[in-house]
Amino acid sequence: MEFDDPDTPGAGKWEINFASLLEKRASLWEFKPVLDLNYGWGERVQLKVKPRLVVLDPPDEGARASAGNIQFGVKWRFLDEPKHGFAMSIYPQADFNPPGRSIERGLVDKGHDLFLPLQIARTFGRTRLYADGGYNWRDGREAEWIVGVAAEYRLADKFIVMGELRDVAQADFDDHELFFNAGFKRRLHEHWTLLASAGRTIHEPRGERPAVFSYLGLQLTF
Is 191 helix (H, G, I), strand (E, B) or coil? Predict the structure, then answer.
């Protein structure tokens, strides 16, 4: 799933996600193994480092792989749901190009990104609703607005289903891409949770082909 929520790991606690993302657009396959490291600095602040690997398998060419962009983020939850009726946070995130030949080999776009989103969440019984969105400044490329809504429903103590709609629009709103995602969380152990989702584009930018994608991850908390 792409959405972020206002939750943080808690003071002195870790949340580590070992994940893989797979996307297919026309005959082009893209695979991204991700290590997502999050640390709770106090009860309301989360620090994130996310290194990536990118594997591309274009048609009629050999697969190629190299380091992807590395992301740093700081989340601050400034409203708590028990006190205010809903939770709200800001989560600035910066992406930087890796050293090496990833740009030259066409695995990442040249330039840095700075995403400035806001997250909101509210719980209604077994259901939790989310909204997030913000401005994504991209060095040397057109900026974007990214917005999304999502919902979770707790089917059982250890099993949650999720759905998401997300839209990525050019800064001038001239074109956009809309996609839907659905998945689940399954707690396997006190410290381990399985996460999986799959989705596809509903509307593509001009000249782009439809895309399908999937996510599979293990989350470790301690």
Answer: coil
Return the number of other C-beta atoms located less than 10 Å from residue 28's C-beta: 14
Give the CA distances from residue 191 to residues 15, 105, 128, 203, in Å, rounded to whole numbers and listed in that order: 9, 38, 22, 38
- How many angstroms separate the CA atoms of 217 and 200, rounded? 18
pLDDT digits (tens, 9 = 90+) for 4-14: 999 999 999 99
Residue 108's nearest CA partner among 145, 56, 167 is: 56
Side-chain-side CA neighbours of 189 within 13 Å: the count stands at 7
Bridge partners of 128, per DSSP, are 123, 152
Chain-centroid distance of CA 85 in Å reads: 25
Q: Which fold has domain 14-221?
A: Porin (2.40.160)
Domain coordinates of the chain in residue numbers? 14-221
**Euclidean distance between CA atoms 178 and 182, whole angstroms:** 14
Collapse the DSSP code of 99 into the 3-class scheme (helix H, G, I; strand E, B; otherwise coil) and give the result.
coil
74/48 Cα distance (integer angstroms): 6
What are 21-53's pLDDT values in tens digits? Answer: 999 998 899 999 999 999 999 999 999 999 999
**Under a CB-based contact definition with an 8 Å cutoff, are residues 200 and 178 in contact?**
no
